[in-house]
């Protein structure tokens, strides 16, 4: 399964990106300076972000696309396999494809921060997120929605559109909360460490979409 570490640029660039994403996930992009990022990454030169990426915004855009590419590739791969086997035949199959490709993105031994980063970003800078994607790296998500339009009990476009708005917020909120809890080493989080929790989450998403 692809991870965010699948491409191998210089270690210093990767460390800057990892620390920037972690800081953005915890503080939001407006609460983090390029100096903060350089310091967290162990860079003595506070201009390291500008040198490697051009600007803080350019770094943010690269982080958005890095994760989006991997999630999109995973979703499309799973959708292709499902369609080749004659599916999908149920909403739950699509729900799984919406959820599971979005987890376990970090490099081995690192903590996931991508969903938290996106959640914080889209609350205050949605236009930046949309522009960075440029309609290119969410084709798997759009394919999922098209399948759901066929499978959902209600065929009314307005109801489907409302459910899709709920869906996006629900996915982002819960996956972000999961990352936050798993990153907290001060105490055990038995619910989020339980392998059945994501399956239960998927069941609740399916129930919302299957409502008459």
- Give me the Rg, rounded: 18 Å
In round numbers, the mean pLDDT is: 92
Secondary structure tally, helices: 11
State the total count of DSSP E strands: 0
The end-to-end distance, rounded to whole angstroms, is 36 Å
Keywords: DNA-binding
InterPro entries: Homeodomain-like_sf, HTH-type_TetR-like_transc_reg, HTH_TetR
Organism: Aliishimia ponticola
Domain HTH tetR-type: 19-63
Structure notes:
69% of the residues lie in helices and 0% in strands. α4 packs across α8 and α6 packs across α7. The two termini are 36 Å apart.
Salient structural properties:
mainly alpha, globular, 69% helix, Tetracycline Repressor, domain 2, 212 residues, 11 helices
Write the layout of secondary structure elements.
Elements: H1 11-27, H2 34-40, H3 48-53, H4 56-84, H5 91-99, H6 114-124, H7 126-133, H8 139-151, H9 157-183, H10 190-193, H11 196-210
Helix pairs in contact: 1-2, 1-6, 4-7, 4-8, 5-8, 5-11, 6-7, 6-9, 9-11
Summarize the structure.
The chain is mainly α.
